[in-house]
Structures are given as structure tokens and as C-alpha cells.
Amino acid sequence: MNPATKTGLSPASVPLLRFVGYFLWLGTVGFGGPIALAGYMQRDLVDGRGWISKEDYVEGLALAQLAPGPLAAQLAIYLGYIRAGILGATLVGFAFILPSFLMVLALSAAYMRYGGLSWMQGMFYGIGAAVIAIIARSAFKLTKLTLAKDKLLWSIFAVLAVSTAWTSREIIWLFLLGGVVALVAKSFPLRTPAGSAAGLFVAAAGLSFGGQITEIFLYFAKAGMFVFGSGLAIVPFLYGGVVQGHHWLNDRQFVDAVAVAMITPGPVVITVAFIGYLVAGTAGATAAALGVFYLVVVVLAPSYKRWAKNPQLNAFVRGVTAAATGAIAGAVVVLARRSIYDIPTVLIAAVSLAILLRWKIPEPLIITAAAVAGLLLRHA
Questions:
Q1: Which alpha helices (DSSP H) does the chain contain, by range?
Q2: Which of 34, 57, 94, 96 has most Cβ atoms within 10 angstroms of its Cβ?
Q3: For 278-314, what is each residue's pLDDT tens digit?
Q4: Is 262 exposed, middle or buried (0-12, 13-18, 19+ CB in 10 A)?
Q5: Taking the C-alpha atoms of 82, 83, 86 and 91 in order, what is their torsion angle to the nearest 10 degrees?
Q6: How far apart are the first and last CA of the chain?
Q7: Rounded to whole angstroms, how far apart are CA atoms 328 and 350?
């Protein structure tokens, strides 16, 4: 039976507000990470309600994996584009991100007001160590998913892991070099679409800033260009720019920003809203979120079908993805230096990692348990 008959609505006739409402609901209750969120969309929109055709969903998933940016949010925005063009993409993106964005705003305000209190310091004492375990598990999973037994990709991974751990900085030209090396090795000769993709990265890397809100927007738009494979891929970039480059946050605040994103539904990249809020309040949070989430899919979607299967572009992206995975692994070392510094934090991180590797425990539960442990240990 055609899935559309389950609701009596075809993909073209479902009311736009009802379509957008689904993403508002998913953004409110959607825990589990990008792969889980993508699975919910397939289950509900393709198999359950027939609002999206299987072909459009598969193409959207491929674009979300291929294009830089948070996978689940990019997929949602693409499906909105399929439903109602730029308007649909804008409304769906807004609805999907809004719940976690509002939660992060509330947490940011509480953090700014009560961050000096001993109970909140105790919570983040435990949460910071658990976050390191979550990032380490994500790096492990991504290596299995993206590198397989490809020696070239493993080499790119190793270079970025070591450079990130050693310098604690975003080295954008190494990411681009990883893509170019994979491109040359796997699909020589070079062709225009791949060169255009590289140009997109170089242009993002060279943006000039002016005015704080504009500076925040453009910085996070640039950072969003290097989110491949997982929202956590943005962490090493943000650390170098936010902590060491602009000095917007200190080490402790940065780890806390990642932790805040872990305890909200929706995409992990919402951590940028916390950072934006600490820098420039609600306007800064909004500028940061818009910079990361919206730009890429809306620009690429109209021409996607023309270049999606280009082997040169795919090879370039595989190289950049291997580089991003290596940077995540290096970021584990960088952030661990700031969050794991005594026996209790070592134990919290080790236990969290062991649980994550052994069982499918939702990350918010791990964060909550770590917060309780931190409170107890700090007040023991």
C-alpha cells in the first residue's frame, strides 16, 4: 500500500504548517544524535505518513552527508526545501532548531547568573569529564564509519589528530589539503565541480569581519563549513577560534558550552548558541545559530542534483571528512587537559566511556548522572 494513503495526503498536498509542525515536535523530543534523528524522519515522513518520497529522502540524506553542516538539521532543511522551496527550508530549519535554541538560551541565562554558585560549579565539574567521554566515543564511532580500512584516509586522520592535539588550534588549510590529497589520489584528473567545492571552503576561510554581531555570524558560518560526519566536528574549530583566537570564552566555559548542547534535544551544534549568548546575549546566540545552520543547504539545494554523484567532489569530501574525524580525536586530548585533572574526574570520564561503549544509554542520562556525581564529590 502506498504510504501516502495512511494519512490521505500526498507529499505535495500536506499543509505546510502541518509539515513544519512535525519538525517543531521532533526538535523538542529528538534525542539520540544525528543518525537517530535522520531515522525518525524516515520512519515518520517516508514510511509512516508518506509526506516525503523515498527518492527525495535518500537524496536529502546524501546531501546532508556530503555537504558541510550538522547532518540532521541539513536533512530537515532539505526536506523543507523539497516541500516548499526557500520558504519551506527556512520554516523547517527554524522549527527544528527553535526548541533546543530556546533551551540553550534559558541554560545560558542561568549559567551567566548562577555560574559562580558552588552547586552549579559542582555540576559542571562532573559534566565536563563526561563530555570528554562522549566526544571520545563519537570519534571512535566515526573512525569506523568513515575510514574503514582505507590507508590514505587513516593517514589524513592521523595528521589532523596529531596537529589538533599538538597545537590546540583550527588548521583550516590542513582540512583542505586532506580533501585535495584524497581527490588527487582517488579521482584524478581534477574537474570543475571539485574545484568549486574547494573554492567554497577557501572563500569561507577568508571571510573578513566587521561589527561584533556580524563577526559572530561570519565566524560561525565559516566554522559550519567544516562540520562533517558529526556535529562534534565543529569542536576543534571552535576551541581554536573562540578560546585562543577571539578570547570570547575561557577553557572552562568552552567545555561547559559543549556540555549544555549535550543535555538538550536536537543537533549538538546548538552549542554555538551558548557561545554566542555569552559573547553578545540573545543577538549573539541568534547570529551564531543562523551562521551554522542555514547557509549551506539553501545555497546548494537548487543545484544539488547536478553535482551530487560527481566522483571528484565525493573524493574531496571523503578526505575532508577523514580530516574532521581526526580533529575530533585531537580535540579529545585538548579538552581533556582542561576537564580531567584529578582522580574523581578521571573516574567519571572512565566510567562514562565504559558505559557508552557497552550500552546504548542516551547521552542526556550520562550528563545528568555526571552532574549528580559532580555535586556529591564537590560537597563531600
A1: 16-29, 34-41, 54-66, 71-114, 118-146, 151-167, 172-187, 192-205, 212-224, 234-238, 251-262, 271-293, 295-300, 304-307, 311-339, 343-358, 363-378
A2: 96
A3: 899 999 999 988 887 755 566 666 666 566 667 787 7
A4: buried
A5: -130
A6: 61
A7: 18
